[in-house]
Amino acid sequence: MRADARKNRDHLLAVAGAAIGEQGVDVSLRDIARRADVGLATLLRHFPTREALLEALLRTSFDELTALARELEASGSHEDALVSWVRACVAWTTEYRGVTVLMAAAIEDTESALHASCVTLRAAGARLLTRAQAAGAARGDIDGADVFALVAMLAWLGDQSSLAPRADHLFDLVASAILTRPGSRPAEAERPERRR
Prior knowledge:
Blueprint: H1 3-23, H2 29-35, H3 40-46, H4 50-74, H5 78-93, H6 99-108, H7 115-134, H8 144-159, H9 167-178
Helix pairs in contact: 1-2, 4-5, 4-7, 5-7, 5-8, 6-7, 6-8, 7-8, 8-9
């Protein structure tokens, strides 16, 4: 890709990220193009669908969360690794309102531009869960799909203004329900700051 084309693409992604952060994933593509000071045709030339735009925008975050899962697999206790990763996923999803709905749909839709990234992310969480289960630190009656669903549920709670103040408390309740060791509880220090 030529340098000027890459610069234009990066500009569109930066503008789209800001717009989606403010208005959610349903923001108008026309509005994104207007904010970027380009025509809609230019935006669609780079990103022919909303999902293609979201996939390009979210790919770095997906890759970072997958890499975090690998790092956590190699260090720390089994339960802390699992809970820390779930907490990082929930914190990230709050950056883009409505993204968890798209992610949940993309898991089932093999034609979705987000499918491969979401499947990889779910697999990363499943590995951490399996590791914790093998150590007797997590319940055996849940799987990677459940962990992915819990991330979506907890992210949704954080997006509800009336429930947001209870989000951390509810996260701790859910984490305690996943873990099996008495007294297991995520460490306060492991909590990343919520981004808005």
